[in-house]
Each structure stands twice: as structure tokens, then as C-alpha cells.
Amino acid sequence: MKYECALFDLDGTLLDTLTDLQNSVNAALTQFDFPTRTYNEIRCFVGHGVKKLIERSLPPYCSAPQCEQVFQFFMQHYKHHLADHTKAYDGVLAMLQKLQQANVRVAIVSNKADAAVQDLCQHYFDGLYLLAVGAKENVRKKPYPDAVNQVMQSLSAQPDKTVYIGDSEVDIETAQNAGIRCISVAWGFRTSDELSAARAETIVTTPQEILDLIL
User: Fold this and answer.
1) pLDDT tens-digit readout, 183-210
2) pLDDT at 159 over 90
3) What is the mean pLDDT of residues 66-85?
């Protein structure tokens, strides 16, 4: 076995959450009479947490108080609609089950708000991971390695036996900053070309390829 611990990003890696994110962003924008955003715009805006997603979705003339209002509305809306259209990517559940059977320690580290991470992981992947961590006030978000380092410490994971799996340039940077290898998935919120431009070291197109690389 090449790796004993596999850390996964959530949105765009394990779960396709983009439609629900777009719907909640646009509900918040509409509530305050701002223009809505397309699916592809939201795809490009995600990766650095929901606060940054809202900032990028708003027109540049918005004030900080307006941004906060839209953000708070988004959070309330998304809390009740985070699983309307969200689904696990094809092959992900089988991959996690096989990793568990092989005694690979699996954890999830996301820039998504921690409460949403807990809800979604329990709903879709209950029993298939040891630890799930989302964004918290006192921990710097990815690409800072803080959350990854904390999870590795909790799992007694060695850097040379740990791999991070994600779908964006943020995940590539996070792995580099944590001193671990990275596998980039091409089915998420970034294209293969975008991942290559971000200097991805390994790009996969199916969950089976992740299994082959880990096991």
C-alpha cells in the first residue's frame, strides 16, 4: 500500500454540490436586487469558502455591510437546501468502501462551513470516514495547511504516507503547504487544463484511479 491515510476535499471531489450552491447564491442575490450568476460563474468562484464565494458573486460596488447581508441570507437558505440536488459523484461511494476495507484512514477537509460539512458527510458517507472538518473561525482556510495538519495529527498520519485528493488549485496548494502529495480529480469544479495550469502533479478521471494510486 502506497498511502495509509487519504484526505479528501468535499465539494467537487466527493460531492457535486454546484447546483445547490448556485441556487442559494442566486436566491440571496435576488433577495437584495443584485444580478444573478450563471452555473459556470459559480463554478469558477468556489474553492476559497462561502464568504469568498459571495464576495465574488456580488458586483464590485457592493459595500461590506451589503456583502454581509447577502452572506447571512445565503447561509440560512443553503442550510435548508444544501441537499436538494447534491449527489455523490459516480464511483465515489464504492471507492470509499474499498479504502475502508483496505484499512486506509479516510478524512475530509473542506473550506465549506463546518456545520454544512458535518450534515453532508453524515448524510452521504456515514461510517466511511474517521473525521470530517470544515471551515471554523479559529482555523485558517485552505490553502493554509492548518486544518490538514490538525487532521493528520489526530489520525497519527505520517506525511510520506498521506495523500490529499481535491479538484482545484486550492487543493494543490494546500497539499504543497502541508508537505504531502496531491491527486487532482478532473470531474469536479476545475477542468483538466485548469488543473494542469495549476501544476497538478497527478490528474485522474475516475475514482478507480484513486484506488489504484493509493493501494
Assistant:
1) 999 999 999 999 999 999 999 999 999 9
2) yes
3) 97
The alpha carbon of residue 50 and the mean position of all alpha carbons in its chain are separated, in whole angstroms, by: 11
Q: Confirm if 43 and 25 have CB atoms less than 8 A apart.
A: no
Q: Is 0.85 surpassed by the pTM of this model?
A: yes
CA angle 29, 34, 36 (to 5 degrees): 65
In order, the DSSP letters of the chain are ---SEEEE--BTTTEE-HHHHHHHHHHHHHHTTPPP--HHHHHHH-SS-HHHHHHHHS-TT--HHHHHHHHHHHHHHHHHHTTSS-EEPTTHHHHHHHHHHTT-EEEEEEEEEHHHHHHHHHHHHTTS-SEEEEE-TTSPPTTSSHHHHHHHHHTT--GGGEEEEESSHHHHHHHHHHT-EEEEETTSSS-HHHHHHTT-S-EESSHHHHHHHH-
